[in-house]
Amino acid sequence: MQTVIFGDHEENTLRQFRNCLEAGNVIGGVLCADGHYGYSQPVGGVIVYDGQISPSGV
Q1: Measured between alpha carbons, how far is 10 from 47 in angstroms, rounded to an integer?
Q2: Burial letters for 18-57: b for 16+ Cβ neighbours within 10 Å, e otherwise?
Q3: I need a surface site. Which of 47, 48, 49, 51 has the fewest CB within 10 A?
Q4: Is there a contact between 17 and 43 (Cβ–Cβ < 8 Å)?
Q5: Any residues with CB less than 8 A from the CB of 4 and at least 6 apart, and which?
């Protein structure tokens, strides 16, 4: 799985990003420089799934 994190982030944002990478058929993820803690996944984060879409990330 390929992941990229741009910039520095608070620990709760990084934890939320890592948790999202463990759910479903994840094949990659990006946390952009302006990313911050969100409701279910970081705002400014992108999680790439194989064959599925997460409504909470839309």
Answers
A1: 18
A2: eebbeeeebeebbbbeebebbeebbebbbbeeeeeeeeee
A3: 51
A4: no
A5: 29, 30, 31
CA distance 10 to 52: 28
Length of the chain: 58
**Domain coordinates of the chain in residue numbers?**
2-57
What tens digit of pLDDT does each residue of 1-58 get? 899 999 999 999 999 999 999 988 999 999 999 999 999 999 999 999 999 888 877 6
Taking the C-alpha atoms of residue 45 and residue 9, their distance in angstroms, rounded to an integer, is 12
**Could you write out the DSSP letters of every residue in 4-25?**
EE-S---HHHHHHHHHHHTSSS
